[in-house]
Amino acid sequence: MSDMKKTVTCKYCSAEYPEELANCPYCGNANFYGQEKIYMQRMSQIRKRLASLAYIDKKIILKEILKIAGITAAVIAVIIAVIFTIISIDKNNYSKQINEMRGNIINEIQ
Ligand SMILES: [Zn+2]
To answer: Considering the domain boundaries, does residue 8 fall inside one?
Structure first.
């Protein structure tokens, strides 16, 4: 398989080497095809990193939204509990007042 790899001939020292190398392994001069390939690979790595950063940002935003939703739900639950407590206290007071009035009426009758 390695025989099938494409090679280039260095235009500075005439040595043959695999075309994906960025530099001639013999004289060190640049191989533009190899350099372009490495550049494109680095670009795609940078793109992947940027994409993963965007993914992390989305995760953080989702976490914050869930946190705020949780806090909001807790606050609403407390408010509902307070309202129900007030209503039940009012009910108790109301039935106490009715019982007092009933007692008064019974006393007046007797
Ligand atoms: Zn060379």
So the answer is: no
Confidence of residue 21 (pLDDT cuts 50, 70, 90): very high
On the question of pLDDT at 36 being above 80, the answer is yes
> Residues lining ligand 1 (ion), CB within 5 A?
10, 12-13, 15, 24, 26-27
In a domain, 94, yes or no: yes
Round to whole Å and give the CA distance between 83 and 70. Answer: 20
The candidate with the shortest Cα–Cα distance to 31, out of 47, 7, 1, 2, is: 7
Structural domain tally of the chain? 1
**For the segment 67-101, what is each residue's pLDDT rounded down to a tens digit?**
999 999 999 999 999 999 999 888 888 888 889 99
Q: Determine, yes or no, domain membership for 63.
A: yes
17 phi, psi to nearest 5 deg = -155, 160
CA of 4 to the centre of ligand 1 (A): 21
Task: Report the pLDDT value the prediction gives residue 72, as an integer from 0 to 100.
Answer: 96
Containing domain of residue 42, as a range?
Answer: 31-109
Residue 12 CA to ligand 1 center (angstroms) comes to 5
